[in-house]
Amino acid sequence: MSTDFQSSREALGVRLRELRTEAGMEGKDLAAKLGWQASKVSRLQNGKQTPTAAEITAWAQGVGRPDAEVELQGLRAGLEMKHRSWRRQLAGGHRARQEVAIQETAATRMIRGLEVSRVPGLFQTPEYARVVFDANAEFRGIPPTTEAAVAAPIRRQGALYEPGKSFRFLLCEAALYHRSCPTDVMAEQLDRLYNIVGLRSVELGVIPFGAQLRRTAPHAFWIYDRRLVIVETISEELWLTDEADIRLYERAWEWLAESAERGSPARRLIARARASLDLV
Fold first, then answer.
1. Given Cys at both, which of 49, 74, 88, 206 links 266, Cβ 3.0 to 4.6 Å?
2. Model confidence over 234-277: pLDDT tens digits?
3. What does pLDDT average to in each consecutive run of 10 residues of the chain (280 residues)?
4. CATH classification of 3-79 is 1.10.260.40, yes or no?
């Protein structure tokens, strides 16, 4: 269990204890009132057990402070934000994290995603993926890219052809032009994207330059069914499982999707970026 997670759980426990003592109640009294074992009250207020949303509600009502429920639920929601340091995840290279991605994709029926400045891993060619990995390895000072690391995202792409799965992605047009790779690698990648548009399981929307947006695209994120959102930052990933966070990212995705071009218009945007490479 991470130190951050445990510290947050202990902070919630301290607040639960404060509310109980402010109400002039012993732990055994609150347990009796709620129909719990006294040991459960002890575990919750000592940060040894994570309370459910229903238990938070019961606690607030049991100590006569229903007004404190919003505060307590907010503290609990903070536990659902899982910080995964890139330093720890990539200590041995990229392969281990790619295996995690394969597992999450296998367990998911619908993935919705937004990418701002690069092609989503599910659609990358091996050469493009290698450039991404090599640049990240140099930036982070981690072991060089291995063949197994490059092969992992390609294996993951098998999910694109599995019955019952769907992939709905938004791609800012800038990602079609941002190049950290040789021209021939980018050309092949854009050709791949052009053909991806026709896959039955894929809905690829390109948000054009100059599009009218209800909300700008702040950063990349992926939504796995309605159970998990993964947000990538420079130093860590955020794995969000709280329902309120998931709803918020769904709304962000939906608002951005309103401005995306799909089908033939999306292909034209990709083709225009591909044609620009012939001028380099």
1. 206
2. 998 898 888 889 999 999 999 999 999 999 999 999 999 999 99
3. 66 91 95 95 92 93 92 75 78 86 92 97 96 94 88 93 97 95 96 95 97 94 95 91 91 98 98 88
4. yes
| Sequence-distant (≥ 6) Cβ neighbours of residue 127 within 8 angstroms | 181, 185, 188, 189
Phi, psi of 170 (to 5 degrees): -110, 135
